[in-house]
Amino acid sequence: MSWVEIISAVLGLTCVFLAGRNSKYNFWVGYVYNVFLFVLFWRQHLYSAMLIQPVAFAINAFGHWRWTHPREGERSSRNAASLKVRRLPGRELLVLLAIVLTAGTLWAFALDRLPVLWPSVFAPDPSPVLDSFLLMVTLLAQYLSAQKYLECWQVWWIVNGANIALYLIAGLVAMPVVSAVYLANGVWAYFNWKKLYSNEQ
Questions:
Q1: Whether 189 contacts 182, CB under 8 Å
Q2: Three-class secondary structure of residue 71 per DSSP
Q3: Residue 150 phi, psi dihedral angles, 5° rounding
Q4: pLDDT tens per residue, range 134-183
Q5: pLDDT, tens digit, for every residue of 30-68?
Q6: What is the domain range of residue 171?
Q7: Total structural domains in the chain?
Q8: Positive or negative CA dihedral for 9, 194, 156, 57?
Q9: What are the phi and psi torsion angles at 86 (to 5°)?
Q10: CA-CA distance, 2 to 7, in Å (whole number)?
């Protein structure tokens, strides 16, 4: 277990803990977390998880802006400068799932071809299909979190469950434990956000 993995674990737990408690400070921790994860996944040859980090950094910045600059009709009744918890419209969910399926299939193919095209740069991904679809579902969860949709936590349950399997396959030690804690926190955060949503109705 490397020091990069240990620091990543601490940062990740802190970030998720703050997000579950509806704290905007989770974004500041998230920026540093993305940098450490990029390094960690590069060292473990999890290229899909590695390449998600710049995108995740951008989504994190978008979420930071959305949470602190709500539009008219999106403001929390407790704090007008804060975005309220909302529900995801069904039609938007269907569109997002179609994007995840299409992009996941294409990226799995790309991950399988990268070591063939550039063997000196990319080692074979230990699980390209799982890695690819986990990337897309993670991006979906982050997007939903950035928009403060209640359903983001249900998607995070899927992500964290799959992450446990992926990290074990990759030989990581701390990250599977961290993902299990994320999963438990995600269950608690869902009910916390659900209460916040009910209070806004």
A1: no
A2: coil
A3: -55, -35
A4: 889 989 999 999 999 999 999 999 999 988 887 787 787 777 888 898 89
A5: 999 999 999 988 887 777 678 778 988 999 999 999 999
A6: 3-200
A7: 1
A8: negative
A9: -130, 170
A10: 9
